[in-house]
Predict the 3D structure of the following.
Amino acid sequence: MISVYEYQIKSIKLKHTREGFLPTEDYTSIITRFAEKGWRFVQLVDFSNFAADEQHIDLVFERTKK
């Protein structure tokens, strides 16, 4: 049987500090919350080098479609 997956993406804005870019939300607690709901963390996509006016990262999650 072929598994079919559904995906959800959570964007987190980044703020610029002297140390570099930092997320405005705690990504580890977001990953934990999604995992408790049956989502598996797949990938972090970093967009901080693409657009200077909208710095963010995307957390990608998947689960088997029901």
Notes: The beta strands are 5-17, 20-23, 40-46, 56-64.
